[in-house]
Amino acid sequence: MRRLGPLSYIFHTIFVIFILAPLAVVVLVSFTSKGYLSMPTDGLSLRWFKAIWDAPEFIEAFWFSVCLAFVSASAATLIAVPAALALARMTFHGRAAISSFLLSPMLIPHLVLGVAFLQFYSRLGMGGTSVGLTAAHIVVIMPYAVRLSLASITGLPRDAEQAALTLGASRFTVFRRITLPLILPGVAGGWLLAFISSFDELTMSVFVAAPATQTLPVKMYNHIVETIDPLSASVSTVTIVITFVVMLLLDRLYGIDKIFIGKS
Amino acid sequence: MKRINATPYLLTAPGVLFFSALLGAPMVMTLLLSLHSYDYTLGIQDDWTLANYLDVFTDSYFYVIFGRTLGLSLLVTVLCILIGAPEAYILSRMRNPWRSIFLLVVLGPLLVSVVVRTLGWAILFGGNGLLAKTTAALGLGEVSLMYTMTGMTVALVHVLVPFMVIPVWASLQKMDPQSEDAALTLGASPFTVIRRITLPQITPGILSGSIICFALTAAAFATPSIIGGRRMKVVATMIYDEYKNTLNWPMGATLAALLLFANIVIITSANRLVERRFAKVFE
What we know:
The complex is a heterodimer. Chain A is mainly α. Chain A has helices spanning 6-29, 47-54, 56-89, 95-103, 110-124, 130-154, 159-166, 171-200, 205-208, 216-226, 230-253, 256-261. Chain A has one domain (56-261): MetI-like fold (Orthogonal Bundle). Chain A contains twelve helices and no strands. In chain A, α1 crosses α11 and α2 packs across α11 (230-253). The radius of gyration of chain A is 23 Å and the shape is globular. The relative contact order of chain A is 0.13. By secondary structure, chain B is mainly alpha-helical. Chain B is 76% helix and 1% strand. Chain B contains 13 helices and two strands; from the N terminus they run αββαααααααααααα. Chain B has helices at 7-33, 51-58, 60-93, 98-107, 114-125, 130-137, 149-174, 177-185, 190-218, 222-228, 235-246, 249-277, 279-282; strands at 38-39, 43-44. In chain B, strands 1-2 form a two-stranded antiparallel ribbon. In chain B, β1 and β2 (43-44) form a beta hairpin. The longest helix of chain B is centred in the N-terminal third of the chain and has 34 residues, at 60-93.
């Protein structure tokens, strides 16, 4: 294989700086001791992290986002797994249509989904409720759960299941004792991806959320649009650190390239 | 006579029912809403009219914003190709552990909320930011990229370039590296190898990355809203304003319907093109 030339390394270095620069700036600014946005030139200070503690609405929004992501990712997975079993294993009329229907939220801009839910919920009189927000999140993240479940079921050899059936196990037992354990890693990956997508979702939630049901991204967006202060930077730094830990965990468990790029 | 097996329908029923109620109904309602007119004192009217669509197609204000969104999407897509494709190539030629580490660096930001990534650029671009200080020190005056096309473009390329790296990386994985060596042995220059051997093989990856980057830029909301603000409106921020500030929901629904329509047409036709021209590569 050809070696890389010096130009490639220069390009690569600039690229990596470009990717990391905005994140690094956010982290640096959050350690400022000043009352306004500035680089921490005269010593590091944790005052803006303490400020998060004094402004409980960010912490509330964080926990709300965690609960929302947990419930909607779990519900999406529960709906996606049986559907994926049918789509991957059986041939039936309307199979292609059902499959594209369940994957269609990927084709629709989140903004369009947002305005659609806004009108739908306000017509039903449940605008800004957490139930409505959860249902909307389930719709948006369903494609991830379906795709990863499909991927893990499609590659599955059927010998073990057929052996179990021959030996007299019921279909449900076969699913519970054989199929489910085999597809669990893929399903768990889909759940995680769904969880992260829900946790990070802004564009749709900005339309659906009410002041009482603000997710963390919505809360941060509303804060930043009003004023960009060191508090927004320190909250962001906390989320960057959490994301970093989750990412390392994901990389250890699955390999980050497998999650984003698929099987290589 | 063939008996219809109910099992697959039962298994997919929860998803189909849930989606019909919570995706089908809201989308249809939005399309219907775009056919009502709006009166600033009386609110949404009960009539059926194409007036909103006519307004969009005859008012030059909308042309400017749709044109800006289209231009921004094309520019971001081209920059993502120019930056993302070479980087994917470089990554694929790296040795482990560097390759895994840098793959993590390039893809990791995808897990960080767009709001956070855009905040970083807003801080860099803002009045008191690093960029203004650097240009001032260079004697160029304080340059601010807030509320400019350039600022939006840079921030959006940052947000979307991983979506170019991923498919190009995937198509590089399928490529046989020995084909490059063979061409080199036969006397081709490194440039010819890239142009004649590597590029044709990663073109499907570049095309599918382009579709994703284009579609996501056209519908991007957070970055244009924070960096572009009111001064540099795009279709997405205009829809937000119609719904949240002007409260002209029928016009907002019209714009959303047009955005959705343009999105689907572009994605499906580009997909067709990719599949027809590069069917062999996908096998």
